[in-house]
Write a structure and sequence with these properties.
32% strand; 171 residues
Amino acid sequence: MTDHPAVPPGKPTSYSRVTLSRIMTAVDVNLYGTVHGGVLMKFVDDVAGAAAARHSGGTAVTASIDEIVFSEPVRVGDLVHAHAQVNWTGNTSMEVGVRVVAERWDSAEDEPVRVATAYLVFVGVDVGGAPRPVRPVLPETPDDERRFREAEIRRAHRLARRRAIQAHRAA
């Protein structure tokens, strides 16, 4: 018997959407004069955590970062926006997709530039830190459906990789 409540009713993808924004400053730079990847990784984790908590209706913790791709450098003065949403849910886990764009400080009238994308896995936890059920995500648009299916592929790859590594270690 479990102490966890029943799974709450599902929520649409749009319910979890969160955007965080900040201006990058001199304290964020690396030795090359661009924003340090670790600064962007924390920003990604922050916005993903907010989306996961919103969707799950409580505490959610980062279980893994499936992938993060830095496509363009970010510079001091850029206004950076991180957009996140829950793409997929399991029983206690969920995948959050994040898109990071930058408005260049020296060309603010131009379209924002995509600078990074990431996929993170979060687990809903109760007050004791044990996994708890999370509500299903209900894709609303064809893009949401595509993201849901792609998240299932990433999950299958994660599980297959884990099984392969365990089998190798057992040999």
